[in-house]
Structures are given as C-alpha cells and as structure tokens.
Design a protein that fits this description.
heterodimer; A: mainly alpha; 9 helices; about 75% helix; B: alpha+beta; 17 strands; RNA_pol_sigma-70_dom (chain A); transcription (chain A); sigma factor (chain A); transcription regulation (chain A); RNA polymerase sigma factor (chain A)
Chain lengths: ~170, ~500
C-alpha cells in the first residue's frame, strides 16, 4: 500500500471506525485515539494490510484491542502531555442522541454489544460478523436478537427517566 | 410506562453520523499518522527486525561463500568429484536450515522416501512421481515456540514440508516446476473441494536461490475457514510455497501457519521461505554434499579471533533477562538465547562492524507496544578485543551527532556520555527532530565493558519529545537499575 492509497483509506474509514469503536467502548476520546493508533500500526504493517481481506476490519479489530488492553488503560494515566498525536485536535462532535445510545450499549454484555455494533452500525452481514468475532452465525443471530430486545428496554427506560427529554429521532 | 421501540433505527443513525465527512474535522492528517507508523516501524526494526537482517546475512553468507571467491573452487570440486550423485535425504532441509522467527522455529518430525501418504502441497493434483520424477524424498516439520515461556508442543495447524525430486532432464524438471506454480495459482476449486472455500492466492514472486543457474518462485496464499478448535474470527491458514529449480532437480517448500499476521518485510530479512530458498538450492545442487546435520544455527557467532576463551563462555543459566518487569498486555519476550539475531547499528549511513568477533554471545529482548528493551552479552577472546568491539559502537555514534533527515523527514541525533558501570561504559542516546521540533521517539544504548565481556543494554520508547537529554538520563538509569543482576555477574565470566 502506497502513501496515497493509505491516505485515501484513512480519509474514507477513520470516522466510520472511530464511531464503531466508540459504540463498543463508550469513550469517544479513547476511541479516536485508539483508531488513530490502529491506523498508524496499519501503516507500520502495511504489507499485512495489503494482504488483509478487509483492511477496515483489521483496523477496527486493532483499535478495539488497543482500547480494551490492560496496557492501554494503565498507560493512559501515565501519558506525557507531549505524547505523539495526543492532541487530537477537533474530535468528532458528539451528537446528544448518540450519548444515550452509547450509554445504553455500555450496559449490554460485551458480546451482544459487539454483535449489534458490527451488524447495525458497521453494516456487516451476519456471516461477516460471525467471521470477525469467531463464532457461528447462529450465535451472532441470538446475540443480535437478545441485544436488540435489551437495548430497546434500556432506551425506553432512559426515555422514561428523562421525561422524554432525550431525543432519539 | 415508557414505550419501547426497535433500536435498529438509532443504531443505523449512529453509524451514519460517523461516516466520512461527518462529525467534525479529522483529528490528524494521514501524513501525521503515517509518520507515527514510521516511528513504530523504526523502533521495532532497531530492536528486533534490524537484528534479524543480520541473522539472515549469517544464514546466507555460507551459501554465498560457496559460490563466490576462493570457496567456490571447493564447491566446484565437489560437483566435479560426484556430479551425478543420486538424490538423497541429504538434499533435504535440516533443522539447522529451517527458519521462522518471531520466537518460533521449525523442527523436523519425519523424513521419508517416495511420494509419501499426503500430497506435497494442498494444490498439487499429482504426486512428484506423477509429474515424472524418478526419485523423491520428503521431510516434515512442526512449528514450536523457542521462548522460555512458549507453550509446550507444536503450534496447532502449522506445518512445513519440503519435497525434493529428481527428473530425467532439466526440461522435465522445469515442466514440473511450471505445473506446480500453475496449480498453486489456480487452486480455488481444489481448495474448496478440500473444505477451504475461502482460498486466495497472491502473485508469484521470484526469489534468489544463490546458486548458478538456479531459479526460484514463491507464492503466498490464505485459506480457510479454520477448524473450530483453531478459529478465532480473524486467523486463517497462511501458506507460503517456495519452488526451487536446480538443473534436473526440484524442491517444493510448503509452509503453512495459522494466524492473521504474516508480516515479514524485505528490510526485515524477508519471509521464512525466502530465507530458506538459498539453503534449499544449495542442498539441491548435485554434489553439494552439505552436512546432513549441520549446527542448528548457521547464525552462530564466528570463531574466536584468538584462543583462550571457550565457545560457550556464557553459562546457559546466565541471568541475562533478570530484572525486567512482567509483560503487561500485548507484549513479548525472547531469550536469553544464542540464536537470536545480534544487535546491529547503522549510523550516518554506515553499518557499524560487529568486530572483532565474539567467542560467545547471548541475547534477550522484552517488548511492549511502545516500549522495547534488549540485552546483548558478548564474550571476547581477549580484553583488547572487547575494548575494540565496544568502541566500534561508541565511536560510530560519537562521530555522528546528527544524521541527515530520513524518508519521513525526521532527523536522528546522537549523544555519547560516560556511564558508571563495569570497567568502562558509555551511554549512547538517540532522539529525533521533525522540522526543528522534538518528536516522541527515543533510543538509549548502555554499553558496558567488563574485562573481556561487553554487555549492551538497549531501550526504545516514546520519550524525547520535551527533554531528550533528561529522558536519556532517566532511561539509562532505569536500564542499569533493571540490569543490576547481570551487570554484577559480568566479572564472573
């Protein structure tokens, strides 16, 4: 992958992957930083990227793993203010409607949340979600079904608690 | 009672809000991200991969010396003495020839004569005999971890098989060579029939067999799905098939590993099969008569420049890795071991010579994603040799306080300071600037000479952005503190 090709890939995929990681971990700053680091690693391993069937999936998986690694959680507290790329500039604006959804997603079991994000936000077919997660398609379908039901309840509760103040439309 | 609704619409809207162009400006430019990637790569290269290149050189040099210069006449003599020696097991790769890397290596599990029970390659539609071979031998290998904390037993699903065959004529061998290349390239239907519908192959690439009139091709492939016991969602079978043609003989090196990452860049020494091709070609050459069981590592340190110290002067249980913290997260350790690649330095465009040659050497490394550390202990034949070897590294850096900017626009700077350990020691600090500003990348080498030994402690991390000199001092202090035990034992060697 040449620089121009990578730049195009980065421009096309960065926001999308950041949103997906944000939905999975519930922290936009962390999602932005991990996605950025995942893209940097993709460039460092660009031959691997050339051979990846789904480069965006590679970046998403790397970013997600970075976000959940114990190493990262520890290092985040120790980070120097001068750390490379730490000044993220203008991060993606947080839509108020996203906050409630992400808060609800965070209350789901990780497996259900991951399935919902990959299928409904990343727009992957069930077969590809199953391949990316490493479980049978039937398991993904079950997680999607349970996750949707649980999420509907959580969002309804949120709406009720907020007295209709949280807008999902 | 709140009304429930299907949240799919919310999820879809959320995704749409994060499409390209939505949600504000990009936080960093792609160029910035690439620079960061280059930093990651440079540090990894300095600590691991750059050193691997030396190991490759050590592996390939014996082959080259057999075909160039004075040693070539020895090879020619061998060929002249027995140019028609029949194909045999001696033409197969041995444990000493096979390489993988990344803390793993291939180990022979069986050798057989004839076509064997299994196909010599997933895509092979006929046996070697079916292709016209008059003699065939094969050897199988399994992949095992070589690090102290590696899981016991072979890596499930990974294997290496080499098949060598002799044909009635060079033309017949070439025909078989071309046929196997075609099979591997057009393997989709066959792979599907064997339960691997997701077969993907890459363009064949030429490789250098490093023997006269030899020819080699390598083809990589990926296929799956993996069986349930190996599936993790992202891994596949990663195949690398090398074909080597020498006269009327053909070798097929079929490597298959399970993973999602097969990241062996040319600057790191190339892929495992690329590194094995010259060795396979050298063995295949009629009359080569290479040893059947060479030392497991052709990358062993050279013989001493003078006598006095044994070739295993470092006890196997020397605590070279003592004092490092436990790996936390996605890190790794390697060694202590004698067959890890030696440290290398390239300063102001010139490689620092690893000279005089040590009589024994042991290496260990510790790596986390943004923090890499390594230790290299070398024992020399004499104290004078140790002094010369240490100063070769130190003076190369002292003579190069600032390098030209590299491809990413970053300028490396070096400083050499006196250390406080051993009979004499030095701290070599390296930091980087980009367009006049410090960038967060730091390298520190602590070179310690004690008698006829040289211990080099090295570290690469993300320091140096605000106060490079302070970060160098801090890192050097930590290196020495962590290595207190091996440093204290240097005088016992």
């Amino acid at each position: 992958m040449e620089a121009a090709e990578f730049d195009e890939f980065y421009a096309a995929s960065f926001r999308r992957v950041t949103g997906q990681v944000y939905a999975m971990i519930g922290d936009l700053d962390e999602a932005t930083e991990c996605t950025q680091e995942a893209f940097a690693r993709a460039w460092a391993h660009r031959r691997k990227l050339d051979r990846a069937e789904y480069p965006e999936a590679w970046v998403r998986t790397t970013a997600y793993r970075l976000a959940v690694s114990r190493w990262r959680r520890r290092k985040r507290g120790e980070r120097s203010p001068d750390r490379a790329l730490q000044d993220l500039g203008v991060a993606a604006a947080v839509d108020e409607s996203h906050v409630a959804l992400v808060a609800a997603l965070k209350q789901l079991p990780e497996a259900q949340r991951q399935a919902l994000v990959l299928h409904h936000i990343a727009d992957l077919p069930v077969q590809q979600v199953a391949a990316e997660v490493g479980v049978p398609e039937g398991t993904i379908k079950a997680r999607l079904s349970r996750g949707r039901a649980a999420l509907a309840t959580l969002l309804a509760d949120e709406t009720g608690l907020a007295g209709g103040g949280v807008t999902h439309a | 009672m709140p009304e429930q609704h299907d949240p799919i619409e919310d999820l879809a809207r959320f995704g749409a809000g994060f499409q390209a162009g939505g949600g504000g400006e990009m936080p960093r430019t792609a160029a910035d991200v690439r620079r960061r990637g280059d930093q990651i790569r440079r540090r990894r290269t300095a600590l691991v991969a750059g050193a691997a290149a030396l190991a490759v050189a050590a592996i390939t040099v014996p082959v080259l010396t057999l075909t160039h210069g004075s040693a070539r006449s020895d090879r020619d003599d061998l060929i002249t003495n027995d140019p028609t020696r029949a194909l045999s097991q001696a033409d197969l790769l041995t444990d000493g020839d096979t390489v993988y890397g990344q803390g793993n290596d291939w180990f022979a599990t069986g050798t057989f004569e004839g076509d064997g029970q299994a196909s010599f390659q997933l895509c092979a539609e006929q046996s070697m005999t079916g292709l016209g071979a008059t003699a065939t031998f094969g050897r199988t290998f399994e992949l095992r971890g070589t690090l102290p904390d590696a899981p016991a037993g072979p890596a499930a699903g990974s294997f290496l098989q080499e098949t060598v065959a002799a044909f009635p004529s060079p033309a017949a061998a070439r025909k078989a060579y071309n046929q196997v290349v075609a099979w591997v390239q057009n393997c989709g239907p066959r792979a599907k029939g064997q339960g691997y519908p997701d077969y993907r192959t890459f363009d064949p690439r030429s490789a250098d067999p490093a023997v006269p009139d030899g020819e080699a091709t390598i083809i990589e492939s990926q296929y799956g799905p993996l069986p349930d016991n190996l599936a993790d969602g992202i891994s596949k079978f990663i195949g690398e098939t090398g074909l080597v043609l020498v006269g009327d003989r053909l070798a097929v090196i079929d490597s298959v590993v399970v993973g999602s990452d097969y990241n062996f860049l040319p600057e790191d020494g190339g892929t495992p099969v690329e590194r094995m091709v010259p060795k396979a070609a050298a063995r295949l050459l009629p009359g080569a008569d290479l040893p059947g069981n060479p030392s497991p590592d052709t990358s062993n340190p050279p013989t001493p420049s003078s006598g006095g110290v044994g070739a295993t002067a470092i006890p196997d249980d020397f605590p070279l890795a003592a004092g490092w913290p436990e790996i936390d997260g996605d890190g790794s350790t390697a060694g202590p071991a004698r067959d890890l690649p030696a440290f290398t330095w390239s300063v102001c465009g010139a490689d620092v010579p690893d000279s005089p040659a040590p009589v024994d050497r042991m290496i260990a490394s510790w790596q986390e994603p943004e923090d890499g550390r390594g230790r290299q202990l070398s024992v020399y034949a004499t104290e004078a040799d140790a002094v010369a070897a240490a100063k070769a590294v130190v003076e190369a850096h002292r003579a190069c306080p600032e390098e030209p900017a590299d491809d990413s626009g970053q300028t490396p700077h070096h400083v050499v300071q006196d250390g406080t350990a051993g009979d004499e020691s030095w701290v070599i600090g390296t930091w980087y600037t980009y367009q006049g500003s410090h960038v967060p990348a730091l390298g520190v080498d602590y070179v310690i000479r004690s008698g006829h030994t040289v211990l080099i402690l090295t570290a690469g991390n993300e320091g140096g952005a605000a106060d490079p000199q302070g970060d160098i001092a801090t890192t050097a202090g930590s290196l020495l503190d962590d290595a207190a035990e091996p440093v204290a034992q240097l005088p016992t060697l």
